Amino acid sequence: MPHLPALIVIDVQRAFDEWEAAGKRRNNPDAVARIADLLTTFRAHRAPIYHIRHEGTNPNSSFLPQSSGYAVKDEAREQPGETVIVKRVNSAFIDTDLEQRLRAAGIGTLVICGATTNHCVETTTRMAGNLGFDARLVRDATWTFDRIGPDGDKHTAEEIHAMTLSNLNGEFAHIVTSDDVIASFAAK
Question: What is the pTM of this model?
């Protein structure tokens, strides 16, 4: 029997709630609910789940271990027996044992979700593709924030999200929806 895909849940931490409360605007307001749906499905099928946490190293980071932003959002909290990997850079593969764990378990397909689309999710997805994994990026289970570009241009979270998905599509990952992923389990 082929191995089930692994769910990679990236940085679903309270720092992002704090950013939003401070006035930063994001897209995909239902993304965390879709992540919860994915977690429910993977747990029901006893498929592997890897929770990725970002630990800030800059003294001003919202993700310092002692800060309130480091905590995981309740909807995405790990359950006993689920792997938690702490990273200190954008990619979940750099200076962690994620790749070794996946290879040792014989996992070839990764379903990737979390925050933010154009930072840690994108970097991890690009590396997954480059490492030969069949990466599936879940478009409605990721989100990002508005940003100001180097020329002072404002880019909406929706534009950034769409461009990131476009950049990754086909070369680094297949872009899917949470419904696509859930339906694939029902078909097994």
Answer: 0.96
